[in-house]
Predict the structure.
Amino acid sequence: MRVAPEIDTATGPSSLSSQNQLLQPLSQLLVHLPANQPPPSQPSVSQPDNLNLLTQNQLWQPLSQLPVNLSANQPPNQSPPSQPSVSLPENLTANQPNQPPQRERSEQVADLPSPSPTTTPVFSWGVHSATDFCVILEATYTEVIHWRKNSFTVPIGKAGKEFVDELSNLYAAFASASALESVALKAATVLPILSLQKPHRASKNKENSACLTRRLSTWKEGNLNDLLLEGRTIQRRLRAPVVSKYAANQSQARLFANKVFAGKCGAALDILADNREGGVLHLADRVDPNNPNSLTVREALANKHPKGQPPHPNCILPSPPQEVHPVVFDALDASSIRSAALHTSGSAGPSGLDAYQWRRLCTSFKRASDKLCHQLAMVARRLCTSYVAPPLIAPFLACRLIALDKNSGVRPIGIGDTARRIIAKATLSLIKQDIQEASGCIQLCGGQLSGIEAAVHAARRCLDSDNNEAILLADATNAFNSLNRKVALHNIRRLCPALATILINTYREPTDLYVDGDRLLSQEGTTQGDPLAMPMYALASIPLITKLSNTNITQIWYADDAAAAGKISDLREWWDTLTKEGPAFGYYPNPLKTWLITKEGFHTIGSTTFHQTGVNVTPDGRPYLGSPIGSPGFMESFAESKVASWSALVTNLADIATTQPHAAYSALNHGLSTMDYQANGPICVAQHQAGS
């Protein structure tokens, strides 16, 4: 048995070093300057009576004209002290399309806060000393992380409770910074892989329970080599599934039903609509199998995960970074973790425990489940309130990576560990108001209610306005994977301190991506499948949007999908500024995916103004966030194509209903009926056919 100092599981980690700086609500800090009045170098603005967030008419005012910090002890009827405005310098130089901008440094960017010291690993695990066990665990982790998923469901009963307790103890060791913290999260990743291996394909629950009891005993004795040998033998005997063409055709209805009964109605409908990707690619495959000179999948994945770029001082907001009091996260408890687990879905990450397994672990084992939820909440508190050494949490942050065929391209799909996703969801549910207030109306992907709908309606109104000649729909290349991490983390410390600590812990160092028996690194941007990715991108893009602010241009941003409306000459100036300043923040505009939609009579002017930029110019329209923007004729044809695809989907669903009526009815009510812009006719037909 392992021996370590006693762990106090009733309390969370220690507080941050600075606790006297509290985050004030952004709604109490914003004041507005007139749109045509630039901010003075040392503004002195009286506090207005109305402290609400930006209205829609003030949607795209420069951020540098907005924030004025009020002292915590200052009476509300006094003017705030003069402070430098939050703006970014204008001396950024041009850059090449796929290269970071070359700049002369005028000063050095301060390092991110240093992590807390790591507790010395003084413990024994079975017959092994701490040093020996760390070496054995590392070797085991390096091998099993590449194993194929072959886990059985944790059985109800004594063996299942013992497994949940052991997992809870490992999370408790990390949360309390005990002597086991250096191996705790890595052991929590290895434990399910080794102990839940199905002994054979047809193993029953009783046999699985006996295997789990035996393996847990071996685990506690520290005999990882015995477990590794057993699991290695099982993995070698796994056979790749062989599906004949006849079976593939006959199994569509069964595959559809399995997806529906697993709660994946969207994936089930994709089967009927034939929206699935072409299949899984291997690293040695060619992206274009018909072209022997095309990139390999490994090379394509490397291009989609670029190396990290250093930050430049001109990209960092000048206001000092702030800290948030740890009391904010006292609400992270067992109930919030359980709620997040129940609302989490998706496949398994490196540990092999998918969302379904975690829902059972958090709800089906009574006191053991309560203990697990509590300890996971303590892990969340530590990640949100203190800076952790990257090696301690590297296994917790690792992801599985799958390369899917995308018609002569590669779509990387990252799958993070489910426990990480649960913690992220629980954290976001607690601080979502802070994120919404920080992003405001500038970035509509910060958790605002109906953000996509607001962006689409705003874009349509802008195009219909008599003051505008066109609207430019801009897109970026590999946006989320190219975001400059260091710039983002520094700015988020200033914009939303409540989210900054967990983001720094998550993205301070490169993340391991395990794919096809190999390891890649995610060094820039966010990792796919991370619930924190969208809030991080929303906040990180605010300084760039601020630099693009122009009184003659109306901007609408949802993540990397930007829309700008105004005079065509002003739009060209806005585009030039975006291509110049964007790469410093990790935003690389892609002219091939960018469209200028002109109003009637302005197509020639638009083509001439944007000549040689690579931007597409059309008088008709284009989809924006899945909705048509443009002329009435384009919008009508777009709607007709959607109705045709929905009608075909309903017909396929009716065919499935003949052999899988329950699955078809469930998909109709929980999947198809929730799709946007439903047509009542096809839905009524589908209900009649499914019922018959």
About this structure: The longest strand covers residues 399-405. DSSP finds 25 helices and 14 strands in the chain. The CA atoms of residues 432 and 545 lie 21 Å apart.
